[in-house]
């Protein structure tokens, strides 16, 4: 018998009866976000661990890593001690469930308004302004900018802009843009923030961090096939969070 066939058979058996069960058992506890008591703050937190990353870490003999935590903005130097808590102390929740409202969140209603820097995305502002005139309501303007890459000359030799410098420039432009938008909401309590991230991840992270009660945004009209595939930010956002989301047509007023 060919020794290579025997070796492949042994490897296949090892995968089927050893590695696969280990990976599955490591995945199982993290298929959904979990609620737990943060060992550092002693308050409720909601954490997410990528199931596949947990499986790979288990196969490599390492511990899992937190992918998202509702307290990330309030803890410095976190060592992820929560992952060592007994499984009985972790309560799974459905995907997209809003995390517990952080202690530092405002006591009134917070409306998160993602803007992309274009006039079309501002179509949601008049409606948001009406909603935010309730006592205690706050509008939080959000601009998510993608991380920059190093820009080189056409020949690929000279560096025209370094990634950190380009990212800082984008952040500065985004802050100036949000300041201009905030001035157009004179009768509303407005805060603003810039995040460097993927659009959907940035919106969800900010909404969870501040305990937003509503996400209000404008969305592009798309071809029916594109809507079916769920490629828009609004469609991806609907799958990523259960925080109520108000969507108005992008650029409706300017197109009229």
Q: How does this model look, in words?
A:
The protein is of the alpha/beta class and 256 residues long. It has two domains: 3-92, no CATH class; 110-255, Rossmann fold (3-Layer(aba) Sandwich), CATH 3.40.50.620. The chain contains eight helices and eleven strands. It has helices at residues 3-27, 51-59, 125-131, 163-183, 199-210, 224-229, 233-240, 252-255, and strands at residues 34-37, 44-48, 68-69, 91-92, 110-115, 138-145, 151-152, 159-161, 190-196, 214-219, 245-249. It has a five-stranded parallel beta sheet with strand order 9-6-5-10-11, sandwiched between helices. The longest helix is centred in the first third of the chain and has 25 residues, at 3-27. The radius of gyration is 23 Å and the shape is globular. The N and C termini lie far apart (77 Å).
Largest sheet: 5 strands, parallel
Query: If you compute it from the alpha carbons, what radius of gyration comes out, rounded to the nearest whole angstrom?
Result: 23 Å
Distance between the termini: 77 Å
What's the order of the H and E elements?
HEEHEEEHEEEHEHEHHEH
Second CATH tier, the architecture of the largest domain? 3-Layer(aba) Sandwich
Count of strand segments: 11
- Indicate the structural class: alpha/beta
What's the arrangement of strands in the largest beta sheet?
9-6-5-10-11
Helix content: 25-40%
Look at the structure and name the CATH superfamily of the largest domain. Answer: HUPs
The total domain count is: 2
Q: Helical element count? A: 8
**Could you please say which CATH topology of the largest domain applies here?**
Rossmann fold
- Estimate the global geometry from the Cα principal axes: globular
User: Strand percentage, roughly?
Assistant: 15-25%
Residue stretches low in confidence (pLDDT < 50, at least 5 long) are 223-230
**Mean of residue pLDDT?**
80
In the CATH hierarchy, what is the class of the largest domain?
A: Alpha Beta
């Amino acid at each position: 018998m060919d020794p290579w066939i025997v070796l492949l058979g042994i490897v296949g058996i090892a995968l089927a009866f050893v590695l696969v069960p280990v990976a599955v058992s490591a995945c199982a506890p993290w298929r959904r976000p979990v609620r737990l008591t943060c060992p550092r703050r002693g308050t409720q937190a909601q954490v997410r661990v990528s199931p596949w990353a947990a499986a790979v870490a288990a196969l490599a003999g390492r511990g899992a890593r937190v992918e998202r935590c509702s307290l990330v903005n309030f803890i410095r130097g976190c060592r992820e001690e929560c992952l060592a808590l007994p499984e009985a102390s972790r309560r799974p929740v459905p995907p997209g469930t809003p995390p517990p409202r952080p202690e530092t969140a405002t006591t009134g209603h917070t409306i998160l308004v993602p803007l992309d820097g274009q006039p079309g995305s501002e179509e949601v502002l008049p409606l948001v302004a009406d909603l935010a005139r309730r006592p205690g309501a706050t509008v939080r303007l959000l601009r998510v900018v993608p991380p920059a890459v190093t820009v080189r000359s056409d020949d690929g030799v000279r560096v025209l802009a370094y990634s950190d410098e380009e990212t800082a420039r984008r952040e500065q432009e985004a802050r100036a843009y949000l300041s201009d938008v905030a001035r157009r909401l004179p009768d509303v309590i407005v805060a603003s923030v810039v995040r460097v991230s993927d659009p959907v991840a940035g919106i969800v992270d900010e909404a969870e961090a501040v305990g937003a009660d509503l996400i209000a945004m404008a969305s592009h009209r798309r071809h029916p096939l594109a809507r079916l595939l769920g490629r828009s930010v609004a469609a991806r956002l609907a799958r990523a969070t259960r925080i109520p989301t108000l969507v108005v047509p992008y650029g409706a007023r300017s197109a009229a």
